[in-house]
Amino acid sequence: METWDAIRTRRNVRSFDDRPVRDEHLDRIVAAAALAPSSMNEQRWAFVVCRDRERLTELARVGAYTDHVAGAAVAIAFLTPKADDVAERESIAFDLGQAVENAMLAAWELGIGSCHGSVYDEPRIRGLLDYPLEMTCDLVVSFGYPEDPASLAPPGSRGGRRAVGELRHEERFGG
Ligand SMILES: Cc1cc2nc3c(=O)[nH]c(=O)nc-3n(C[C@H](O)[C@H](O)[C@H](O)COP(=O)(O)O)c2cc1C
Q1: pLDDT tens digits along 94-118
Q2: What is d(CA 51, CA 71) in angstroms, rounded to the nearest whole number?
Q3: 132 CA to middle of ligand 1, Å?
Q4: Domains of the chain, with CATH numbers?
Q5: 141 lines ligand 1 (CB under 6 A)
Q6: Helical (H) or strand (E) element with 82
Q7: CA 114 to CA 125: how far, in whole Å?
């Protein structure tokens, strides 16, 4: 799949079938996250790969919109260092977003759907994953083969996006 086609067609998938994700595919998804660029190449992240069904069920309870995790083949919890400084926190979040998108696009190329899950109950996910005190987790992403294979080929291009013409300016804002 061309990069452009992955970017153009990827949509979030929230229902998955029962097939496990093959190890080599999972390796590629995690590697894609790890290959993302980061500020000063600091790579302030760690990825906890969860496949145990009971753990996935528990992980589905860490947010208000994380039900999809319970039915996923895999969930990856994206860990970052805690930061008090706002600028540092924003820089970490920016980097993490790139890692997440890399992983989701790499998955899409393999026919694997994914969905973000925002963590609302950090103490709960900390208890489940047992990560060090100086780290935190704001995002879990579920992965799996879509229950509806048609979701891998959404009609037309991605929907629900603002028109590029509305967002693009030439030389100066408004131009
Ligand atoms: C930072 C972030 C947090 C998100 N959190 C959730 C979430 O908790 N649950 C969920 O179902 N989707 C979540 N999403 C997915 C968005 O709802 C989705 O990307 C958006 O609706 C566009 O969907 P599409 O890519 O299928 O067009 C999140 C996305 C981002 C970027």
Answers
A1: 999 999 999 999 999 999 999 999 9
A2: 10
A3: 27
A4: 3-148 (3.40.109.10)
A5: no
A6: none
A7: 19
